[in-house]
């Protein structure tokens, strides 16, 4: 299939900001885009599979692998004793064994891996292990962990003002509880790595990873190598969503250990079940709150106990819960506030990053508090939300001390209110509900304010590498990874714009630790902010070099040299970029440059929980309308209206795609996606047959998704754009609250809706029954 | 030896007849455009055409395809297929892309049997192809766009 790159016809000055198609679109639609599983393997490659524990908590008395080793095609097994270096893939606290040794800490934990001639042989062999377990009591949920004071890392408290005194003083006071479910990433491409031994002990790793540098370091530590002995490459992932930030190191390290042991390349591609059993998910959390408020619903004081199920190890639970703390405020000013955050240790899989990184859970808490206040006061929840919005000083300081600058939520929500017809529809819904016993409808508008930057300040840096070859073509590399968010397209747009080239002149190459070192995870929505700026810096270095040389060589003032659409204007004279570059090469001008960027102005005290962790905030809001069948508990999203702030968009097509996709993924999290463990701690929802992510049926019949226009980022980001990867996920809180609104219509007004997340049919029915039971109680 | 046609070329493979077609395509024939997603015919990433019908190749024993004509994403050539691929690019459907081979195979099969599908037809035909990036709204739009182009 031939694809004409329409972008090539555009003046390059306009390349950034255009809705250009994804740089790999022509490959994706013909099946030619290569993922890790598609890379041709060297002869003699072995295929590996994990042997997983079947119990949640036990000492291993004996691990008998004789049947595994005797199985057809088996070449080797990998055990802790085969790891020459550190048996660990945890990046923060080193408490994640690659293969657990004597202690099993969750059902599904890798104990060994087997390498065989074929994938099927490895899988068949892996289940033949005979394990003698000495079972120990297991802590499986957050309440049990709290009772046992079982934590992976110490609890933290953020306090401002005098919340206890203010609670007592408040005209009204209420307590409540919310539980918030976890979420499996369910990237369509499961975890995968290929380890290929190189000369002199080095190792080449193809990994589906958001964090090549971490994979590099973990593999090096496991093999007792140094960082420069390991190269990690990733051209693209078939989805990441945070699930490929810390987890790929496990897969890569296990493959590398077997490759080291056998001297042969090893591929480890997890089955869907194994992926879901053995790798971490979004943290489920519970929140107990105590709120004081006035007759207008304005919050006077809030105290929250927020406890997360971290699983058996720390993984990224520290930063995830720090971000949760920093998002309990969402869009609202909390003058007197206390947030106690517990990071609970349980004998379940270790939870990890997932789009929003704790932020969504924190925001769910305050949205529930506000909804409860509104129900009690019999006010429209939207009015209570707006009464609590951040405003002018002094109502513009977050609990952690950052001032909320450039807040667009008042304007944005006003526009959305009007464009969605919220008030009229709410009235119509009330009328409908009055006349409908079975089908109840509900509507909600919820806002999003999401902090952009890694809380960990040192992560906010990036590098890029650009080569101009002497035929005028450009090779671009940067520290970011492509997982479908369109990062490679956006950064190519930046470079094309800076060098005045058509997009076809730029080739973006795989993330590669041997090209750009010490990269940060492509996470926290920061990919284009960081890598776009780093690539811009590299491109500007090259351009400046060419200008300085050309000014002398062609005797024109530097100010009269322009780069536009593949042509360099030297005053009145035009020279094709390729010709200029060829001449620059002959004049011995260096045509390769690195670029570097670090986010300015941010600082964070992780102990005091004070500072300016975020360079800026991204904003959005959504209005969702649902219908709920009160006999079955089923709900249907009927319409959504979204207005979202991406600053000056780098690429509206990509940005709106992120908003559509993030919203629906969030709706899945809050409605149908339920992770369910049995009493033995075995995850029973480990395949698409039992774990329900949104399908084509779940996109509403009516949807209006728009970018907030004319709002360049107030901070100096790449072309004044804003990050877009995570914030839209939280727009889906409007779906959850629309369901709450519909459930509320099942009883007389004035009562809180005891609906927990996810709002499965079961949870909706339970909430309706609880509401009605209260009503009929004597 | 099992004999069948893949993308109009005759192939004969010597494999266990219970081997799922997906692995024969990927491992024996090097056609890696068809993806492994779940291995249980629940996600649609492995969709191919068998005599024009969309099938989940991860759960289809290769013995079943003996004598049949298999089309994979690499072999799409029909006018319908080209219209679908063009619409996919024009509407910027793809995010991570991993499920999209399967989505396109299902979409082409739908349009071959129903040139002017309604939204309901599309949801029904595409409901078994899941996309974690949630590109569904654009898939729907792209199918309509391809249908419009084909009837123009």
TrEMBL record, chain A:
GO terms for molecular function: 2 iron, 2 sulfur cluster binding; iron ion binding; molybdenum ion binding; oxidoreductase activity. InterPro entries: Ald_Oxase/Xan_DH_a/b (IPR000674), Ald_Oxase/Xan_DH_a/b_sf (IPR036856), Ald_Oxase/xanthine_DH-like (IPR016208), AldOxase/xan_DH_MoCoBD1 (IPR008274), AldOxase/xan_DH_MoCoBD2 (IPR046867), AldOxase/xan_DH_Mopterin-bd_sf (IPR037165), Xanthine_DH_Mopterin-bd_su (IPR014309). Residues 30-137 form the Aldehyde oxidase/xanthine dehydrogenase a/b hammerhead domain. Its cofactor is Mo-molybdopterin; FAD; Mo-molybdopterin cytosine dinucleotide; [2Fe-2S] cluster. It holds the Pfam family Ald_Xan_dh_C. SMART domains: Ald_Xan_dh_C. Keywords: 2Fe-2S, Iron, Iron-sulfur, Metal-binding, Molybdenum, Oxidoreductase. Gene3D superfamilies: Aldehyde oxidase/xanthine dehydrogenase, a/b hammerhead, Aldehyde oxidase/xanthine dehydrogenase, molybdopterin binding domain. Belongs to the xanthine dehydrogenase family. This is Xanthine dehydrogenase, molybdenum binding subunit apoprotein. The lineage of its organism: Bacteria, Pseudomonadati, Pseudomonadota, Gammaproteobacteria, Nevskiales.
From TrEMBL, chain B:
InterPro entries: 2Fe-2S-bd, 2Fe-2S-bd_dom_sf, 2Fe-2S_ferredoxin-like_sf, 2Fe-2S_ferredoxin-type, 2Fe2S_fd_BS, Beta-grasp_dom_sf, Diverse_Oxidoreductases. Signal peptide: none annotated. Residues 1-76 form the 2Fe-2S ferredoxin-type domain. One of its GO terms (molecular function) is metal ion binding. It holds the Pfam family Fer2. The keyword Nucleus does not apply. CDD domains: fer2. Keywords: 2Fe-2S, Iron, Iron-sulfur, Metal-binding, Oxidoreductase. This is Isoquinoline 1-oxidoreductase, alpha subunit. It comes from Hydrocarboniphaga daqingensis. The lineage of its organism: Bacteria, Pseudomonadati, Pseudomonadota, Gammaproteobacteria, Nevskiales.
């Amino acid at each position: 299939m031939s694809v004409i790159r329409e972008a090539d016809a555009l003046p390059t000055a306009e390349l950034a900001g255009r809705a250009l198609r994804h740089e790999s679109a022509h490959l994706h639609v013909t099946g030619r885009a290569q993922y890790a599983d598609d890379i041709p393997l060297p002869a003699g490659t072995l295929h590996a599979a994990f042997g997983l524990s079947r119990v949640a908590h036990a000492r291993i008395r004996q691990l008998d692998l004789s049947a595994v080793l005797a199985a057809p095609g088996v070449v080797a097994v990998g055990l802790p004793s085969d790891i020459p270096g550190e048996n660990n893939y945890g990046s923060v606290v080193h408490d994640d064994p690659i293969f657990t040794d004597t202690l099993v800490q969750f059902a599904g934990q890798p104990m060994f891996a087997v390498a065989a001639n074929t994938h099927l042989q490895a899988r068949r062999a892996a289940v033949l292990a005979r394990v003698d377990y000495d079972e120990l009591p297991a802590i499986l949920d957050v309440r049990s962990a709290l009772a046992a004071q079982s934590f992976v890392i110490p609890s933290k408290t953020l306090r401002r003002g005098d919340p206890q005194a203010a609670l007592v003083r408040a005209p009204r006071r209420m307590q409540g509880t919310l539980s918030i479910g976890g979420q499996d990433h369910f990237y369509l491409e499961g975890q995968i790595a290929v380890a290929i031994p190189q000369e002199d002990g080095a190792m080449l790793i193809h990994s589906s990873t958001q964090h090549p540098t971490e994979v590099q370091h973990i593999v090096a530590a496991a093999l007792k190598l140094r960082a420069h002995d390991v190269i990690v490459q990733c051209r693209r992932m078939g989805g990441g969503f945070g699930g490929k930030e810390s987890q790929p190191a496990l897969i890569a390290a296990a493959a590398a250990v077997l490759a080291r042991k056998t001297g042969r390349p090893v591929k480890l591609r997890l089955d869907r079940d194994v992926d879901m059993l053995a790798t971490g998910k979004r943290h489920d959390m519970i929140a107990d709150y105590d709120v004081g408020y006035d007759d207008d619903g304005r919050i006077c004081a809030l105290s929250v106990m927020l406890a997360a199920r971290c699983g058996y190890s720390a993984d990224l639970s520290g930063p995830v819960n720090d971000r949760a703390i920093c998002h309990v405020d969402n869009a609202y000013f909390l003058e007197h506030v206390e947030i106690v955050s517990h990071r609970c240790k349980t004998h379940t899989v270790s939870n990890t990053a997932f789009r929003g990184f704790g932020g969504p859970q924190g925001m769910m808490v305050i949205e529930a508090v506000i909804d409860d206040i509104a129900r009690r006061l019999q006010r429209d929840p939207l009015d209570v939300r707006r009464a609590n919005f951040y405003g002018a000083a002094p109502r513009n300081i977050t609990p952690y001390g950052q001032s909320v600058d450039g807040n667009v939520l008042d304007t944005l929500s006003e526009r959305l209110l009007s464009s969605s017809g919220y008030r009229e529809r709410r009235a119509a819904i009330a009328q409908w509900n009055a006349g409908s016993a079975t089908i109840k409808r509900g509507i909600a508008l919820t806002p999003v304010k999401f902090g952009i930057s890694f809380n960990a300040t040192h992560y906010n840096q990036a590098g890029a590498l650009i080569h101009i070859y002497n035929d005028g073509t450009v090779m671009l590399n940067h520290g970011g990874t492509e997982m479908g968010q369109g990062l490679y397209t956006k950064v190519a747009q930046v470079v094309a714009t800076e060098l005045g080239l058509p997009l076809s002149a730029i080739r973006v190459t795989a993330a590669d630790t041997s090209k750009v070192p010490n990269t940060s995870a492509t996470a926290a929505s920061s990919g284009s902010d960081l890598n776009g700026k780093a690539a811009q810096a590299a491109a500007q270095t090259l351009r400046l070099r060419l200008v300085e040389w050309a000014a002398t060589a062609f005797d024109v003032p530097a100010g009269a040299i322009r780069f536009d659409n593949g042509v360099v204007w030297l005053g009145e004279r035009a020279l094709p970029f390729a010709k200029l570059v060829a001449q620059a090469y002959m004049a011995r001008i260096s045509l390769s440059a690195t670029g570097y960027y670090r986010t300015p102005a941010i600082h964070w005290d992780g102990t005091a929980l004070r500072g300016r962790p975020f360079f800026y905030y991204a904003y959005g809001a959504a209005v969702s309308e649902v219908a709920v069948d009160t006999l079955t508990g089923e709900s249907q999203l009927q319409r959504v209206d979204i207005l979202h702030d991406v600053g000056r968009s780098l690429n509206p097509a990509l940005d709106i795609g992120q908003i559509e996709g993030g919203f629906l993924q969030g709706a899945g999290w809050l409605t149908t996606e339920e992770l369910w463990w049995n009493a033995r701690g075995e995850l029973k929802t480990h395949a698409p047959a039992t774990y329900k992510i949104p399908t084509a049926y779940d996109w509403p019949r009516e949807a209006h998704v728009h970018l907030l226009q004319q709002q360049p980022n107030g901070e100096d980001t790449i072309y004044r754009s804003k990050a877009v990867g995570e914030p839209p996920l939280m727009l889906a809180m409007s779906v959850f609250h629309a369901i709450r609104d519909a459930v509320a219509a099942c009883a007389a007004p004035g009562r809180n809706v005891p609906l927990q997340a996810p709002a499965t049919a079961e949870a909706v029915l339970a909430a309706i029954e609880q509401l009605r039971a209260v009503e009929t109680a004597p | 030896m099992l004999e069948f046609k893949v993308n109009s070329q005759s192939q004969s493979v010597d494999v266990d007849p219970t081997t799922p077609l997906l692995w024969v395509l990927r491992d024996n024939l090097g056609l890696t455009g068809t993806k492994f997603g779940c291995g249980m015919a629940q996600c649609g990433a492995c969709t191919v055409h068998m005599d024009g019908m969309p099938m989940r190749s991860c759960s289809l024993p290769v013995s079943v395809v003996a004598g049949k004509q298999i089309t994979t994403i690499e072999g799409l050539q029909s006018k319908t297929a080209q219209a679908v691929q063009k619409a996919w690019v024009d509407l910027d459907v793809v995010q991570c892309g991993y499920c999209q081979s399967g989505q396109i195979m299902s979409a082409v099969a739908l349009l071959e049997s129903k040139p002017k599908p309604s939204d309901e037809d599309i949801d029904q035909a595409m409901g078994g192809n899941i996309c974690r990036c949630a590109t569904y709204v654009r898939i729907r739009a792209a199918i309509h766009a391809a249908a419009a182009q084909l009837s123009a």
